[in-house]
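The instructor's notes for this session suggest beginning with a concrete chain rather than abstract definitions. Hand out the sequence below and ask the class to guess, before any prediction is shown, which regions might be ordered.
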Amino acid sequence: MSNPLDPIAHALLAKALALPGVVDGRTGEGGPIPVTPYVEVGDWRSELEPISAGAGSIYYASLGFYVVFYVPYTGANPEDEKSTLREFVWGYHQALKADHTLGGLVEIAQVRAWDMDLTTREKRALWYAALEVEAKREA
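After discussion, reveal the predicted structure:
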């Protein structure tokens, strides 16, 4: 069986890049944020659950990813800046509901939780919204 993790991460990124206003993004965390609004898709906690034993065992995978949106923090109007993040969070949730199989890659992909706060990257203050996304499939 080929590695399903990269295609799933790229499908999650494509959903984020399709949201109105998102300028650019990548899979993988860290490094420069060249433009904003920006999105990163990274890895989160994943689990394998055996559903049949013996030779040719079958597992059910619960694969975890972070989808993190960034917008600049200027301090001029924090409520508007956070409102942009809220649009990304809800828009992403709706995008996964509309295509919960990511085009057949998984049985279901869904937003499980999110967090919003301030961070500093390369001496720049940014708002972020980190979404925990779970994708489930046979492994």
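Then share the key points. The chain has two helices and six strands. The longest helix spans residues 78-98.
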